[in-house]
TrEMBL record:
Membrane topology listed for this record: Multi-pass membrane protein
Keywords: Cell junction, Cell membrane, Cytoplasm, Disulfide bond, Endoplasmic reticulum, Glycoprotein, Membrane, NADP, Nucleus, Oxidoreductase, Transmembrane, Transmembrane helix
EC number(s) recorded for this UniProt protein: 1.6.3.1
Lineage, top ranks: Eukaryota, Metazoa, Chordata, Craniata, Vertebrata
Organism in which the protein naturally occurs: Haliaeetus albicilla
PROSITE patterns, A to Z: FAD_FR
Broad enzyme group: oxidoreductase
Function: NADPH oxidase that catalyzes predominantly the reduction of oxygen to H2O2. Can also catalyze to a smaller extent, the reduction of oxygen to superoxide. May function as an oxygen sensor regulating the KCNK3/TASK-1 potassium channel and HIF1A activity. May regulate insulin signaling cascade. May play a role in apoptosis, bone resorption and lipolysaccharide-mediated activation of NFKB. May produce superoxide in the nucleus and play a role in regulating gene expression upon cell stimulation.
Entry protein name: NADPH oxidase 4
Compartment(s): Cell junction, Focal adhesion; Cell membrane; Cytoplasm; Endoplasmic reticulum membrane
Chief place of localization: other
CDD domains tied to this protein: NOX_Duox_like_FAD_NADP
Known catalytic reactions: NADPH + 2 O2 = 2 superoxide + NADP(+) + H(+); NADPH + O2 + H(+) = H2O2 + NADP(+)
PANTHER family tied to this protein: NADPH OXIDASE, NADPH OXIDASE 4
Molecular-function annotations in GO: NAD(P)H oxidase H2O2-forming activity; superoxide-generating NAD(P)H oxidase activity
Amino acid sequence: LGLCVSRASASVLNLNCCLVLLPMCRVLLAFLRGSQKVASRKTRRLLDKSKTFHVTCGVTICIFSVLHVAAHLVNALNFSENYNEDFLALNAANYRGEVSQLYLMSVLVPGLTGVIMVLVLFLMCTASTYAIRVSNYDVFWYTHNLFFVFYMLLMLHVSGGVLKYQTNLEEHPPGCFNPNKTLRQNMTVPKAFDQPFPDYTTEPFPEDLAVPEPFVQNNFMRICSEEPKFQSHFPETWFWISGPLCLYCVERLYRYIRSNKPVTITSVISHPSNVLEVRMMKDDFKARPGQYVILHCPRVSALESHPFTLTMCPTDTKATFGVHLKVVGDWTERFRDLLLLHSNQDTEILPIFQQRRYPKLYVDGPFGSPFEESLNYEVSICVAGGIGVTPFASVLNTLLDGWKCYKLRRLYFIWVCRDIESFRWFADLLCMLHNKLWQENRPDYINIQLYLSQTDGIQKIIGEKYQALNSRLLLGRPRWKLLLDEIAKCNRRKTIGVFCCGPSKISKILHKLSNSSNSYGTRFEYNKESFS
C-alpha cells in the first residue's frame, strides 16, 4: 500500500509541477490573449484564470507532497522489515531490521533531496498566504524565487533509482525453477566433494528427484537459464517538467534581453492621496489598453520588481507611456523619494531637462490582462474602486485618441472613492473625453458615475474646471442590483462585459449579480484583475 500511494502521489506531483509553470509564462499568455485568430473570446477569458490555476496547482503540490512523504515513511519501515535474502539488488535497506527510517532515508539521494524540497516548499507555501503578502511582500517575493532550487532538487530526487524492474524476463521468467540453486539447498551433499553437481539446465532430471509443485504447471517445468537482473526505472519526472521548465527559462531570458535597456523618464507627477505618476519613453515599445508592465529599479532593490497597470499607452503620434502607483509600502516609498526632489510636494512636474538625474528604471512587458477585452464588447461596464481605476485610464486615453475603430459603442464608467481628492487623479482626462464626445454628437457613448463613499470635503470639487463631473458625482455607495438591472433594460438581449478592479467586496457582489439571470435577455460576462 505504501508503494502504491507513493507512486500515485508522485504521478500527481509530476503533472502539477508541469502545469504550475505555464501560468507564469507571461509572454505566451500575452500573445494568446492578443491574438483573436489563435484564441477566441471564451479561450481568452479562460486565460484570465491563470493566477487561480497557478494557486490551485500549488495547493495540490503541497497536499500530495505531504501524502508522498507519509507513504515513503511507511515504505522505509517496510524496506527494513521485508529484507529479501534471495534478491539483494532489490533491497533499499542495508540489512534486515534496519528500523531507523530517518537514517535509511538520509543515506539515499531521494531522501536528502526530499527533505530539502519539503523545507523549500514549506517556506514558499507559508510566505504565499494573504497575510504575509500584504504585510511583507518582500518575504513572498524572495521565497517564491526558491522555485528554481525546488526544480533542481526535483531533478536529482528522481535519480536515486530505489524502485527497479527485471531486465531478463525471458531468461528468468517469474516463478521459474532454478535447479542449480534450489537443488543445492534441498539435496544431500555428495560424499566426494570433488564430484560436481550435474547441470540440470542441460541434463534431464532424475526420475526419483522430487521437484517442488509450484514450479510444475500442466506437466511443463519452467527452467531459469540465468540469475535475475534488475535495473532502476528511468525517471519519468524529466519528461513532465523538462518542457515547461525550458519554456519558462527561455521566456525569462527573452524578457531579460528585452528589458535590459533602461527607459527614459520624461516627467514625474505627485498626485493627491499619495499617488505618483511616472511618464516614460522607450524605443520600440508597444502596448494595448489594459495591459500592465513590471518595473524594476536597482537603486530601490536589486532583485525586487512590481507590476503596474499602464494608464497611458504609446500611440502612432506619441511614444510616451505612463503608470500611476499608490505609495503604500517600502518599495514605493523609496521609489518616490528617488524620483521627487521633495517628498512633501502636492503637485510637481519635473521635466527631464531640469538638473535632476532620475534613477535607472527598467520596464518588463507589456503583459496581458482581462481589461484588454473592454474594447471588444459592444457594451462594457468598467467598475473601479480607488486606485483600481488605473487599468481603465488607459482605455479612456485610447478613446480620447479615437473610438470609431473599436467595437465598443457604449461604456458605463463607475468609480467609487473614499475622498474627493482621489477623483483629481483623472478628472482632467474625464472632462476632456466628455467634451470630445459632445463635440462629436455622441454624448451617450460614455456614462460616467462617480460615487463618494465619505462626504468630508465635498465642497472642494466644486469649480468651473470640473463642472462636467459635478453633475455626475453621487454620495454613498452604488446600489449594484438596481444599477445592473437598469443597464440590462437599456441593452436588451446583448452581451455586456463587466470589468472590475477594486476591493474584493465589490468584486464578489458584481460577480454574483453577473451570473444571475434577468428578465431582459441581457447576458453579463464578468472579468476581474488582481495583482495580490
